[in-house]
């Protein structure tokens, strides 16, 4: 894991770089132009500044970034995006669509260009095929490639073939990621293989990093909260830089702490008050779901801070335990979902009033996760090194 | 006589998943067609041996759009196997969540994925805002978000969009294609609602999250009941649900339904000639249980089978007549249909021809071929509205008749792409109406002091019989077949709506619903197979999408001149 000291260093150098760039590019004219654009879209300057401070907080950046985000948004150039669908359920695209965090992000995104996205395109067949080829050529080294879904690799990848020539998903992913500026894996499928890679993984499905051995930023979750996808993308767009990552290449701002650390039911965990059966008195009172299988103590994600659908609700809020959907192989390692994980080493407070040693749990888990996926603990802060080491023990 | 031309359309966009259509075109008409699913994920083998309580969460990852559908269908079949039923509160909350899913799915499908098959962006740019406002008032007393001012703004937005070269989802569109029939003002009305729907879908997703935890992939359903008891007991939550329901109702009544009338009016030839419906048989399992024993007669969406388009006779559904054939699918299996309770899913991939086309005489799809009593069936909103019509179920017949009489149309015209699209809109209104009822029923039940949300159960020591809960997903009939021993799943098969509709041929050579519906449709220009997309999309082959993200590619737009 990246330590907080490393992070501080990262932010300091990032701030310097951003300032240098902004000095060159930012001017009164750009600001006026941008203000005009805001106005046309029905936003005030104040809305915009509010958004910048919201984003600063969401990305867990130091407050000094607030004014830089505001400036960077005004001058940002358009970045083409190619979004590929592999073996997936499209839940990630769906989740992405629910973004309203807040609406200004939409405006900023209008400066992004979604050059290719299967589920959005008007035309079908040959015409979009040509479109993809041209886009790769034209934006060589400049586009962001987003992959949704796992890559089937067994039997030469024949379980997914796309296009009139029957190109396999594997070939397609190789071809498109090769010339991208940054490759992003959206969702647990693209990051770690996801549901189709669950035992016995009949199609040899793998996450992008495992299948292609390339550098990647993983934004897992099944699906990830739109906050995490949009936030990571905005960080890259605004600063032209990948945010700091953990050992599984997940952005630390989103995956740096556990669900359990910020859970609204945490006081009940510490007090030893648990739901023992669905719909019982404890369930009506909002007690802790650990005994009903909650994997919040094992899961690094920010759901407990941001909830879903504009803060409407989230699984633990709705009385269901966390299933650990942003962790590698969670379909196998976190199951059964309605029972506590015996091997996790979590000590439940025995009786009411006993406090849990949460720090101990945390460090145990950080170690356990890294060991379980066999990743070397040598990732640099900004760029996780491409590692050939398989993330899955199974293969 | 023109030459026969073979055309491959892959990928088919604006759907969920990976679909290929191949057609033979002769004299500008489709003579033959093949539908192929090009991705296999192997979900069924993955389910073997898993804890039955985990299966629902896993199967909902079959589809990221109707995620509640698989989750609930799985849970209900597990409950059948375990011999239990959830308490009244759980049934009602499930129906309320499901209602939000249906409305979400239908609205997003029609606007984001389908409306551009009917409305031409090129037309909208030419529209006169004053006349557009008049036209909107012709189809609705209080048209949604309609005013001369607003239409002006939408045109400005579109013009900017096009002038900047950022066509986004519209890039490569079949602009100005002759098969588009709306007047420019009609194009503008529909496209302005396309933009409004982007907002409405967020509200509907929030509606699901109130009791369902989140959207997509809700997480409050468990075998035996639901977990969101705190939300259920919180009156503010109900207030949120009903106020969002009102907001969505406004859109359904003043945008969606009038737009369907508009389309029906201007596509009246296609409607009366029955374009795009090759199906003769229609199947609906019935959905939204109204009683705790889930009796078929008391479901809000009706159950039944219609043969040969005969609306005077409806047969009850017996799941033992469902079979799946894999003769033309990439699986091992006998040369006949097999009951899903006895079936395996063992892949046997035989590849494509050297030129990349499908091997039509052999296996050519990852989709199996389900049949009912050996016959091909269409499933989905059209089937449900037809079965409801034929059975005179609740007020479905009144709703369909009201629509038909507005257009001076006969019931037989429902057998068409226009009819299929209208059926979905009528059903959206019908479900919206139902959601109020379940919310009222929930309040009434809570008032009686009943707070139960879960039914306790025992795990079977012996393996259970094959159990199935017949279910309706937004896109059609859905069945999960399961056997359980102890806590473990010992057998699992899923027959999903798109399997029925996108089915390849069976051992008798009978085509599936997509394949059949394309026969005879005009394709004047094979580079722009608009009519193929219109018909295929009208089945809603899943997914919904439309991000506010645009495209810098300006190459395509050059041939299309805009006066700004
Ligand atoms: S990560 Fe989950 S939501 Fe996203 S595509 Fe995979 S299964 Fe669907
Ligand atoms: S175990 Fe789960 S419900 Fe309990 S405090 Fe931790 S995250 Fe929250």
Automatic annotation (TrEMBL), chain A:
<dbReference type="GO" id="GO:0030313">
    <property type="term" value="C:cell envelope"/>
</dbReference>
<keyword id="KW-0003">3Fe-4S</keyword>
<feature type="binding site">
    <location>
        <position position="260"/>
    </location>
    <ligand>
        <name>[4Fe-4S] cluster 2</name>
    </ligand>
</feature>
<dbReference type="InterPro" id="IPR037024">
    <property type="entry name" value="NiFe_Hase_small_N_sf"/>
</dbReference>
<dbReference type="InterPro" id="IPR001821">
    <property type="entry name" value="NiFe_hydrogenase_ssu"/>
</dbReference>
<feature type="binding site">
    <location>
        <position position="222"/>
    </location>
    <ligand>
        <name>[4Fe-4S] cluster 1</name>
    </ligand>
</feature>
<dbReference type="GO" id="GO:0009375">
    <property type="term" value="C:ferredoxin hydrogenase complex"/>
</dbReference>
<feature type="binding site">
    <location>
        <position position="92"/>
    </location>
    <ligand>
        <name>[4Fe-4S] cluster 1</name>
    </ligand>
</feature>
<dbReference type="GO" id="GO:0051539">
    <property type="term" value="F:4 iron, 4 sulfur cluster binding"/>
</dbReference>
<feature type="binding site">
    <location>
        <position position="325"/>
    </location>
    <ligand>
        <name>[3Fe-4S] cluster</name>
    </ligand>
</feature>
<feature type="binding site">
    <location>
        <position position="288"/>
    </location>
    <ligand>
        <name>[4Fe-4S] cluster 2</name>
    </ligand>
</feature>
<feature type="domain" description="NADH:ubiquinone oxidoreductase-like 20kDa subunit">
    <location>
        <begin position="89"/>
        <end position="236"/>
    </location>
</feature>
<keyword id="KW-0560">Oxidoreductase</keyword>
<dbReference type="GO" id="GO:0044569">
    <property type="term" value="C:[Ni-Fe] hydrogenase complex"/>
</dbReference>
<feature type="binding site">
    <location>
        <position position="303"/>
    </location>
    <ligand>
        <name>[3Fe-4S] cluster</name>
    </ligand>
</feature>
<dbReference type="GO" id="GO:0033748">
    <property type="term" value="F:hydrogenase (acceptor) activity"/>
</dbReference>
<dbReference type="GO" id="GO:0008901">
    <property type="term" value="F:ferredoxin hydrogenase activity"/>
</dbReference>
<dbReference type="InterPro" id="IPR006311">
    <property type="entry name" value="TAT_signal"/>
</dbReference>
<keyword id="KW-0479">Metal-binding</keyword>
<comment type="similarity">
    <text>Belongs to the [NiFe]/[NiFeSe] hydrogenase small subunit family.</text>
</comment>
<feature type="binding site">
    <location>
        <position position="89"/>
    </location>
    <ligand>
        <name>[4Fe-4S] cluster 1</name>
    </ligand>
</feature>
<keyword id="KW-0411">Iron-sulfur</keyword>
Automatic annotation (TrEMBL), chain B:
<dbReference type="InterPro" id="IPR050867">
    <property type="entry name" value="NiFe/NiFeSe_hydrgnase_LSU"/>
</dbReference>
<dbReference type="Pfam" id="PF00374">
    <property type="entry name" value="NiFeSe_Hases"/>
</dbReference>
<dbReference type="GO" id="GO:0016151">
    <property type="term" value="F:nickel cation binding"/>
</dbReference>
<feature type="binding site">
    <location>
        <position position="44"/>
    </location>
    <ligand>
        <name>Mg(2+)</name>
    </ligand>
</feature>
<protein>
    <submittedName>
        <fullName>Cytochrome-c3 hydrogenase</fullName>
        <ecNumber>1.12.2.1</ecNumber>
    </submittedName>
</protein>
<comment type="subunit">
    <text>Heterodimer of a large and a small subunit.</text>
</comment>
<feature type="binding site">
    <location>
        <position position="66"/>
    </location>
    <ligand>
        <name>Ni(2+)</name>
    </ligand>
</feature>
<dbReference type="GO" id="GO:0008901">
    <property type="term" value="F:ferredoxin hydrogenase activity"/>
</dbReference>
<keyword id="KW-0479">Metal-binding</keyword>
<keyword id="KW-0560">Oxidoreductase</keyword>
<dbReference type="GO" id="GO:0030313">
    <property type="term" value="C:cell envelope"/>
</dbReference>
<dbReference type="InterPro" id="IPR018194">
    <property type="entry name" value="Ni-dep_hyd_lsu_Ni_BS"/>
</dbReference>
<dbReference type="GO" id="GO:0047806">
    <property type="term" value="F:cytochrome-c3 hydrogenase activity"/>
</dbReference>
<comment type="similarity">
    <text>Belongs to the [NiFe]/[NiFeSe] hydrogenase large subunit family.</text>
</comment>
<feature type="binding site">
    <location>
        <position position="545"/>
    </location>
    <ligand>
        <name>Fe cation</name>
    </ligand>
</feature>
<keyword id="KW-0460">Magnesium</keyword>
<feature type="binding site">
    <location>
        <position position="63"/>
    </location>
    <ligand>
        <name>Ni(2+)</name>
    </ligand>
</feature>
<keyword id="KW-0408">Iron</keyword>
<feature type="binding site">
    <location>
        <position position="494"/>
    </location>
    <ligand>
        <name>Mg(2+)</name>
    </ligand>
</feature>
<feature type="binding site">
    <location>
        <position position="66"/>
    </location>
    <ligand>
        <name>Fe cation</name>
    </ligand>
</feature>
<dbReference type="InterPro" id="IPR029014">
    <property type="entry name" value="NiFe-Hase_large"/>
</dbReference>
<dbReference type="InterPro" id="IPR001501">
    <property type="entry name" value="Ni-dep_hyd_lsu"/>
</dbReference>
């Amino acid at each position: 894991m990246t330590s907080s000291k490393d992070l501080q260093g990262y932010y300091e150098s990032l701030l310097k770089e951003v300032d240098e760039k902004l000095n060159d590019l930012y001017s009164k004219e750009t600001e006026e132009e941008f203000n005009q654009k805001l106005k046309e879209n029905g936003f005030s300057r104040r809305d915009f500044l509010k958004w910048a401070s919201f984003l600063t907080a969401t990305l867990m950046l130091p407050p000094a970034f607030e004014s830089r985000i505001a400036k960077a948004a005004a001058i940002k150039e358009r970045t083409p995006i190619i979004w590929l669908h592999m073996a997936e359920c499209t839940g990630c695209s769906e989740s992405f669509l629910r973004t309203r965090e807040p609406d200004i992000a939409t405006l900023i995104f209008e400066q992004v260009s979604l050059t290719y996205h299967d589920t959005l395109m008007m035309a079908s067949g040959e015409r979009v095929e040509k479109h993809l080829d041209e886009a790769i050529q034209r934006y060589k080294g400049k586009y962001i490639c987003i992959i949704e879904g796992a890559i089937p690799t067994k039997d030469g990848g024949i379980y997914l073939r796309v296009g009139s020539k029957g190109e396999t998903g594997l070939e397609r992913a190789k071809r498109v990621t090769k010339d991208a500026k940054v490759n992003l894996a959206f969702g647990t499928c693209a990051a770690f293989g996801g549901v189709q890679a669950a035992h016995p993984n009949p199609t040899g499905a793998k996450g992008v990093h495992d299948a292609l051995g390339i550098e990647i930023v993983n934004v897992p979750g099944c699906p990830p909260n739109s906050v995490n996808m949009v936030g990571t993308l905005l960080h890259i767009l605004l600063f032209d830089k990948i945010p700091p990552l953990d050992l599984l290449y997940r952005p630390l701002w989103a995956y740096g702490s556990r669900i359990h650390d910020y859970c609204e039911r945490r006081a009940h965990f510490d007090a030893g008050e648990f739901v023992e059966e669905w719909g019982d008195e404890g369930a009506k009172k909002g007690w802790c779901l650990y005994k009903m299988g909650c994997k919040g103590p094992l899961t690094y994600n920010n759901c407990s801070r941001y909830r879903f659908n504009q803060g409407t609700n989230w699984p633990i809020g709705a009385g269901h335990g966390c299933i650990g959907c942003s962790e590698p192989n969670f379909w196998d390692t976190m199951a059964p979902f309605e029972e506590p994980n015996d091997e996790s080493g979590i000590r439940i407070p025995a009786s009411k009033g006993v406090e849990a040693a949460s720090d101990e749990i945390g460090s145990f888990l950080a170690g356990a996760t890294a060991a379980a996926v066999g990743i070397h603990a040598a990732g640099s802060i900004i760029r996780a090194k491409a590692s050939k080491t398989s993330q899955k023990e199974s293969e | 006589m023109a030459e026969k031309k073979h055309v491959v359309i892959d990928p088919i966009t604006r759907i969920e998943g990976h679909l290929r259509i191949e057609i033979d075109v002769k004299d500008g008409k489709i003579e033959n067609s093949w539908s192929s699913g090009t991705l296999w994920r192997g979900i069924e083998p993955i389910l073997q041996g898993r804890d039955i309580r985990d299966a629902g969460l896993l199967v909902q990852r079959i589809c990221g759009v109707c995620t509640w559908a698989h989750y609930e269908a799985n849970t209900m079949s597990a409950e059948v196997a375990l011999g239990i039923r959830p308490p009244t509160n759980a049934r009602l909350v499930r129906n309320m969540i499901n209602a939000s899913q249906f409305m979400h799915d239908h609205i997003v499908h029609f606007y984001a994925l389908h409306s551009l098959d009917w409305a031409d962006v090129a037309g909208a740019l030419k529209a006169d805002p004053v006349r557009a406002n008049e036209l909107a008032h012709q189809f609705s007393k209080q048209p949604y978000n309609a005013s001369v001012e607003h239409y002006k703004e939408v045109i400005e937005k579109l013009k900017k969009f096009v002038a900047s070269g950022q066509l986004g989802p519209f890039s490569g569109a079949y602009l100005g294609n002759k098969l588009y029939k709306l007047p420019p003002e009609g194009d503008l009305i529909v496209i302005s609602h396309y933009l409004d729907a982007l907002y409405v879908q967020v509200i509907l997703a929030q509606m699901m999250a109130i009791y369902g935890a989140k959207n997509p992939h809700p997480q409050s359903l468990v075998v035996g009941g639901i977990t969101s008891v705190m939300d259920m007991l919180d009156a503010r939550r109900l207030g949120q649900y009903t106020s969002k329901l009102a907001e969505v109702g406004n859109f359904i009544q003043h945008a969606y339904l009038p737009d369907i009338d508009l389309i029906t009016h201007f596509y009246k030839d296609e409607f009366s000639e029955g374009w795009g419906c090759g199906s003769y048989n229609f199947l609906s399992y019935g959905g939204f249980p109204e009683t705790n024993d889930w009796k078929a007669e008391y479901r809000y969406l009706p159950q039944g089978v219609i043969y040969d388009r005969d609306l005077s006779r409806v047969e009850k559904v017996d799941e033992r007549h469902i079979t799946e054939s894999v003769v033309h699918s990439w699986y091992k299996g006998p040369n006949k249909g097999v009951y899903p309770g006895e079936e395996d899913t063992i892949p046997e991939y035989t590849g494509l021809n050297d030129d990349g086309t499908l091997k039509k005489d052999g296996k050519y799809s990852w989709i199996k071929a389900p049949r009912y009593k050996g016959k091909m069936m269409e499933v989905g909103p059209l089937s449900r509205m037809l079965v409801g019509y034929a059975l005179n179920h609740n007020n479905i017949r009144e709703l369909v008749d009201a629509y038909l009489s507005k257009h001076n149309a006969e019931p037989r015209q429902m057998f068409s792409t226009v009819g299929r699209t209208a059926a979905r809109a009528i059903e959206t209104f019908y479900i919206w109406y139902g959601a109020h009822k379940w919310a009222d029923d929930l309040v009434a039940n809570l008032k009686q002091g009943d707070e139960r949300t879960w039914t306790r159960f025992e795990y079977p020591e012996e393996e259970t019989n094959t159990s199935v809960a017949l279910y309706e997903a937004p896109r059609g009939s859905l069945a999960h077949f399961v056997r359980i021993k102890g806590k473990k799943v010992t057998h699992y098969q899923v027959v999903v709506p798109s399997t029925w509709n996108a089915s390849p041929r069976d051992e008798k050579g009978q085509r599936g619903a997509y394949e059949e519906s394309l026969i005879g449709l005009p394709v004047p220009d094979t580079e722009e197979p608009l009519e193929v997309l219109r018909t295929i999309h009208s089945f809603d082959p899943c997914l919904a999408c439309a991000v506010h993200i645009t495209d810098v590619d300006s190459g395509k737009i050059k041939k299309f001149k805009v006066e700004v």
